[in-house]
Amino acid sequence: MAASEPQESETGQHLLGCGFEHCENKCQFYCNPCNRPLCEQCKEVHKNSPDTQSHEVVLYQQLFVEKCKDHPKNDIDSQIHQYFLPTSLELQKETREDASRIKMALEEMRASIMAEADTVKKIVDVIASEKVDRVNKIEESLNENLKEQDKTFDDYISYLHKLVETCHQDVSSTELQNDPKITPESIRPIPETTKPILPVFTTGQYNKDKVANLLGSVNVSSLEPPSRKIRLFGTAFEHSVFAEKKSKEEKGKPDDKQTLSSSVTEVAELKVPNINGGYHMSIDSTSGKIWLSDLVGNLLQIYLERNRVGKFVQFYLKGNRPLGDKFSRGCGYHKVTQSGFLIYTDKDNKVVNRMTLNNKIIEIVRTVDWEPISVHSSYLNGDILVGVKYEEEAKVIRYNKAGQEIQTIQMDSKDEPLYRDPHYITENINGDICTSDYGKQAVVVVDKAGEHRFSYRGKKANFFPWGICVDTFGHILVCDDYNDSVHLLDKNGEFLSYLLTRQHSVKYPRVVCLDVENNLYVGQSGSNTLTIYKYYP
């Protein structure tokens, strides 16, 4: 068949990509012997190649109109090209994209391991230097004491020499015996001095396993890998037709510059009782329990049963009420640790508590004068990250699992404050600390050493970030309350897409949270409905 210029199809056909490697153009032609879709440029290359110049290349849309001449009633060929082949090519493309994602993610993981090792080495160097300085100061102190003792003996010996000179004055020995001026009792006693006690160095108690724990761990999920989604036969092209129609309808509207993502599919809506809006959420990956809180101190422990709320336990944490007329007092105030314990901030008493499995409360961190407004438990090393405020100042403090302060993050390299209201906090797969700062109207990200990496301030003039989380590839998801959307960023703060918008019936989103099965939970202000989406990173 002779190929002609492609005409716009009146039917909604699937927009297949070109089959040539590294070509991202849309398919316009199809080579029947090769079973390969081609764009216009690659078609010319294909036809001019000595190996394929005799191949029959047809318009892609002709595959759906022309049937086999020998069997005009048999439309199997059309069905294969309309559904089975495009769908298979799509899945193959997805497989190759997954391979690229895996390579990228593991390269980042290797870099993170080496960066973690460098950080540990630097810490070891600092500690070793501090200990050497300590030894130097002890040596100086001991030497100073010995010098004072040496001077004491110099003075005493000089005193004795003077006594001897007195004895040798021009006075007869008889006179000295009859009238002694110096007696043993009149001589000053020999000064008492002390021997130095040397410090003792006790070697550290460590082994390979303990050092390995400092560098985090690499774990392979025991979950069954999810099946790839295959479009149902007969509806393979509905999505592309709808998307094309929707795109035309959206042209000229105020939101036509928004990038929409099709990487979420709504799964269920949960009506949660006794809650006044979903403002923060923590998931216990070991048991599947969900902790959901609102803005007035209610905290629910929820057990899901087939995407429905089953049993739930209600708590009321009075230390986490709004204060006066402050609009945000910190909402990301709880997190489940690797061990399955809930930790939460008590702003009134300025502490971070741990709730045991039998609901016993144990204080683990005291922030003294600073009010703790957000908390996160690191899945990399178990550290506790706490966002705190004191009057108009704010900072992030890192504590180890024993509750000892080991890092404070407050200023950037220009000595400007990084934070104003860090009311949500999380940690990325590379160790970056990501905070949603309502006062700064930004997502503020620093590396594990506390160095400022970037601040994301949204795509529009008004950006008020709320809940924040990250996925397994290091993408950052953050709620934009003002624009009724959830933004998707890469690990370097580059905007990728609007993951959710008003078109998904999202209004005043407050919290986003991902579980280990890539279920995305979204809570909204003023609503007791928790929406669950399937998230495809």
Task: Tell me briefly what this model is.
This protein is an alpha+beta fold and about 525 residues long.
**Distance between the first and last residues' Cα:** 42 Å
Quote the CATH topology of the largest domain. Neuraminidase
| Biggest β-sheet strands, sense, barrel | 4 strands, antiparallel
At the fourth CATH level, what is the homologous superfamily of the largest domain?
TolB, C-terminal domain
Tally the beta strands. 27
Structurally, the number of domains stands at 3
**Which consecutive residue ranges, at least 5 long each, have pLDDT under 50?**
1-14, 62-69, 232-262, 322-329
DSSP summary: helix tally: 5
Q: What class, by secondary structure content?
A: alpha+beta
Per CATH, the architecture of the largest domain is 6 Propeller
In percent, how much strand structure appears in the residues?
25-35%
